[in-house]
Predict the structure.
Amino acid sequence: MRATMGSIFAVPIITTDLAGFLEWRSAWPGTIAGTLLGATTDFRDAPYGNPTLILMGNEQAGLTPDLTDACDVTVKIPMLGRADSLNLAVATGVMIYAVTAPSRDQSTAALA
C-alpha cells in the first residue's frame, strides 16, 4: 500500500469468483485481451477495442483455461534469446502501453 502513494484508494477493487466474473463478462462492452504463451497474435498487432480489459495469469501457470476461453483475443509478448517470460508486473506494463498507446497517438494527432 505504501508504494501506491495513495492511488490504491482512487481505483475501485472488486473481488469475485470465476462464475461471477464470467457472468459480469457477458455484459462487458469492450474487448477482453489475455496474455498466453501459446498465443499466435503478437501483442502489437492485436485488435484491441475500447474499452479493453487485460487478463494476466500468474508467472508460473499463466491464465486458467476458463479465463483463456473468456478472452476475445489472446496475445503473446515475443521474447529474445532463451528467456520465455517476463516478470508479471513488467508484462502488465507492456500490455497497458500496447492497449493505451493508440488512443494516446490519436489524441496527440488531434492536438496538432
